[in-house]
Every structure is written in C-alpha cells, then in structure tokens.
Design a protein that fits this description.
This protein has helices spanning about 1-30, 40-60, 70-90, 100-130, 135-140, 145-155, 165-185. By secondary structure, it is mostly helical.
C-alpha cells in the first residue's frame, strides 16, 4: 500500500496543477472581461476538461486493484496525467498577445487539443485494462462504444472550424461525462 500512496501523491500533484491552471484561466477572464472576447465553445471545453480531470482523480481510487506495481506502470500513469495538464494548458495559454480573442486562439490550437484528447481516451482504455479483469468486465457494457465515439468525434472536431459542429461535440461530451459519472461512480 505504501507504493500506491507514493504514486497517488505524484498523480495528485500533476492533476492539481491541471485544475489550478484551468481555474487560473477562468479567473483571468473574470478579472479582465474586456481584454479578450470569450468563445462559448472554448469555455465549454474548459468546463469539460475540469469535470474530466476531477472525475479522473476520483476514479483513480481503483488503482488499489493493481496488485503488482512496476516502473513502467508508474511511468504510464505519470504520462497519462501529464496529458490532462497539457490539455488545460492548451485551453488557457500564459500569453494571448498573438490572438484577438479566445475563438481565434482555440481554432489555431484545435488540432493539438483534439489529437491530444484522442490520445487521452487511448490512455484511458489502457488504464482501465490495468485495473484488472473485474473492473474491466464491469465497464465493458458501454465502455468500448464510448471510447470509439469519443476518439472519432475528436478526429472530426480537429478538422473543422464550424461552430455548430464544435458546439454539438462539446455538448455531447459534457452530457455523456455527466451520465458516466452518475451511472458508474456516484456510489463508488
């Protein structure tokens, strides 16, 4: 159990930085509302990533089901959580000097954002596998469909600037994430 506590601490630090970065970005918008015009799609993706990061932190409690820890599993998990931080950083850059608003920024970085988000879902599949057959079998009812749809949607969203496609995609992601949390983890 000491190994898990150590690993949980490292993962928690990185996830905490992800949440901090997102919150700082939103607070900057609140502090300086006239500095940059907000973009609803961008803010919804920021909400989705915040919700997903908090959810991820919660469900990693199932890492206790891993009976044998080694450095490769630990390294994978660190890279996995770094992906969350990267996505938070992509949504809220330190400097917006080269962009007139969040719409132009988001559209200029959307390929990076969505490709990394697709990778995050691939990492999630491996993470689920690591937690053992009992956990994995419990998820199999909807999980593979969820992963395929999410990855496909990310690949489509990476290639379009259409606001409505982006809005529908992020709305669907948020609704499904809330469903997923309520259905699988409210009592867990």
């Amino acid at each position: 159990m000491e190994t898990f506590t150590h690993i949980k601490t490292v993962l928690g630090i990185i996830l905490g930085l992800s949440i901090t970065h997102s919150l700082k970005g939103v607070v900057k918008i609140i502090e300086h509302p006239d500095r940059f015009k907000v973009y609803t799609v961008h803010l919804l993706w920021a909400f989705y990533m915040f919700l997903s990061t908090v959810y991820f932190w919660w469900f990693e409690v199932h890492l206790t089901e891993i009976k044998h820890w080694d450095f490769l599993i630990y390294l994978f998990l660190v890279i996995y959580v770094i992906t969350y931080y990267t996505l938070a950083a992509l949504l809220f850059p330190e400097d917006m000097k080269d962009y007139k608003d969040f719409r132009s920024y988001f559209l200029s970085r959307k390929k990076w954002f969505f490709y990394i988000l697709a990778i995050l879902f691939l990492f999630d599949a491996f993470d689920t596998y690591l937690k053992g057959p009992g956990y994995h079998m419990e998820m199999l009812k909807v999980y593979p469909i969820r992963e395929i749809i999410h990855i496909t949607a990310c690949l489509i969203a990476a290639r379009t600037d259409n606001k409505w496609v982006q809005m529908i995609t992020v709305s669907a992601f948020i609704v499904f994430q809330i469903y997923w949390i309520l259905n699988y983890y409210m009592n867990g």
